[in-house]
């Protein structure tokens, strides 16, 4: 496969042939359809944030899941996935391709339109949609899985809603930011990226 690789900060990306190892525990191999470079990628590329090199920037992506490593149980067919702050819809597309029902909540109308277009182009409109709204005022009680990419403060503010609305056994997954004093069950790291996992317990807080 080909990838745009950064070998040193402040140098141009180089498109080179790469070989991928089989997915390890907790990892998923994805055939990429779209990828974007976000602000954290720019910080790494500019040398503002230290990171092992070489790297392939563009951690926000959508594609078709080809292979799962051991222990990947976060999303399965039939799940209902809510992506809170869903951006351009990449998580929704990935979840719908695994035959989950995916609903995104996004306050920016331009991103809602872009995500809706992307879902339509992927032929997944029957399993994925985006709703314009405020994540703090959203009813996501039907979710089996909630995904987040918000800062720690926002995650902590949302925590009472997660504990109140979600059924026991529902999963919460946050990219890059934790929930303050709510300790994750599992934490996966890859380079500068961190994914946190929680499960709503059988005995929820009142």
What would you note in describing this structure?
With 206 residues, this protein is α/β, with parallel strands linked by helices. The chain contains four helices and eleven strands. It has helices at 39-45, 90-97, 109-121, 152-165; strands at residues 2-5, 14-17, 28-36, 60-68, 80-84, 101-106, 128-132, 145-148, 171-175, 186-190, 193-199. The strands form three sheets. It has a seven-stranded mixed β-sheet with strand order 7-6-5-8-9-11-10, covered by helices on one side. It has a two-stranded antiparallel sheet with strand order 1-2. Strands 3-4 form a two-stranded antiparallel sheet. β1 and β2 form a beta hairpin. The radius of gyration is 17 Å and the shape is globular.
Residue stretches low in confidence (pLDDT < 50, at least 5 long) are none
Helix content: 10-25%
Main beta-sheet strand count, sense and barrel state: 7 strands, mixed
Biggest sheet strand order reads 7-6-5-8-9-11-10
Please tally the β strands and state the result.
11
Compressed to H and E, one letter per element, the order equals: EEEHEEHEHEEHEEE
> How far is the first residue's CA from the last residue's CA?
50 Å
Radius of gyration: 17 Å
Q: Which geometry do the CA atoms define?
A: globular
Q: Report the structural category.
A: alpha/beta
Number of helices: 4
Strand content: 25-35%
Give the averaged pLDDT, no decimals.
Answer: 83
């Amino acid at each position: 496969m080909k990838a745009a690789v950064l070998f040193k900060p402040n140098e141009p990306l180089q498109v080179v042939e790469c070989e991928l190892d089989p997915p390890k525990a907790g990892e998923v191999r994805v055939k990429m359809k779209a990828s974007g470079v976000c602000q954290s990628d720019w910080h790494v590329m500019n040398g503002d944030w230290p990171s092992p090199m070489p790297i392939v920037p563009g951690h926000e992506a959508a594609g078709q899941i080809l292979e799962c490593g051991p222990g990947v149980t976060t999303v399965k067919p039939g799940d209902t996935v809510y992506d809170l702050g869903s951006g351009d819809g990449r998580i929704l597309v990935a979840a719908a391709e695994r035959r989950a029902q995916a609903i995104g909540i996004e306050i920016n109308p331009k991103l809602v339109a872009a995500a809706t277009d992307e879902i339509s182009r992927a032929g997944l409109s029957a399993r994925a949609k985006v709703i314009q709204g405020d994540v703090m005022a959203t009813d996501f009680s039907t979710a089996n899985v909630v995904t987040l990419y918000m800062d720690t403060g926002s995650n902590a503010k949302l925590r009472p809603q997660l504990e109140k609305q979600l059924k026991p056994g529902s999963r919460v997954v946050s990219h890059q930011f934790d929930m303050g004093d709510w300790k994750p069950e599992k934490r996966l790291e890859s380079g500068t990226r961190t994914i946190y996992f929680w499960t709503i317990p059988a005995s929820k807080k009142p």
